[in-house]
Amino acid sequence: MEKNNKIIMKSQFVLSNFLWRFAERCGAQLVTFIVSIVLARILAPEDYGTIALITVFTTIMQVFVDSGLGTALIQKKDADDLDFSSVFYFNFVVCLVLYGVMFVAAPLIAAFYNDATLTPLVRVISLTIVISGVKGIQQSYVSRNMLFKRFFFATLGGTIFSAFLGIGLAYAGFGVWAIVVQQLSNTTIDTVVDSKMAAQEKVFLAASEGIAYLWVEAFGFSIAGYSVQQFTQSGYRQDVFLC
What we know:
This protein is mainly alpha-helical.
């Protein structure tokens, strides 16, 4: 009898977290959709075109941010604080390097498109690479511990706040910067709230063997390759749509 009760409680727990996760995805997508419509009525098409040009490069960099390590942390049965901390700091260093590449390449990207205004835009919006690297590991912690109810409020709160911020800046005449700030603030708020939920231990250790194990366990290179394939396919569809 006690065993059956545990099974029922576990099933209810899983179902509850599934519903919270589903609500989080639907709510975030709905708010994002509404904000996109409002911003499209305020901003010029050229502003969206500028963001699309930059997103091509940042999306490529995002492929290398996680490389399957976050997925490995979720799947590993005995993942502990040392594993999470090791991957966290490893990802953070990798993201700093990737941001450095984008920072240096920003003038080259601007020169390629013959638009000097792209340089500061690329350097600012590329900050999402670093923030996403931090956020990814925290999301792995939240997913592993099934804290989707808190995740719902974190994501929706960040999405709504950044929506008002972006729309306000657009009305104030900031143009393309309204989109940049909206995206950056959304990712930042999600990351800050997730960090509070994760309550990650401050373990300043770099377990290279643990990282290597997680990478192999997750088939990181295969996942990264799959992400590249997905990006090229989605990018192709986007190009067709823009044409």
